[in-house]
Specification:
This protein has about 200 residues and is mainly beta. The chain contains four helices and 13 strands.
Length: about 200
Amino acid sequence: GLMGILGLDFLSRFDVDLDFKSSKMSLFQPGMLLRHNPSIKNGKQVDLPLKIGPNGVLMTEVALFQNQKEGPMIPAIIDTGMSYSIMNWQAANLLGARKDGSGGVRPTGAMVTGVDGQPEAVSEVPIGVRFKSQGSLAPPLQISQRVLCVGDIALFDDMGLGTSPVIALGMDVLSDSPWSNRLILSLALQRIRIAVPA
């Protein structure tokens, strides 16, 4: 069969509903999808601001937490093409996770292209993600603490975010395990909705 990648040049023309549990993607006229209130029956949801960042990537903001400690809101890249989320060391440091192993940091043995074009070792750290509706009294939506990757990858530097805390959210967080979440994107309304089962 045919395979390919649908980029923002195409998807930005629609509201997009990604139902991971059903393995379905639905497209709607711009600005129409959220009026139909897509969600998960008896589940929880949160609406977040959505914008196109440097290099044409989708971005929002999240807070990271580890045990009882929560960091400030930081930029988050939405990347459904990534299997695993990765933050830079500036983001991990906000929670006391450091290269010396403090904060539960462990080496993975994996390497990526670093901000200087040289190989960069990737570590892992147990950290969770909180999505907070801005201007709403709704409680934050929490993706439970799990092992996330940390490393200063070239993507962050290419976007001019190499010296600021930032995380790229992959499918491990966006779809959650076992691929049960629902992700709704509306560039027309500049909003993203994340819905999770109860």
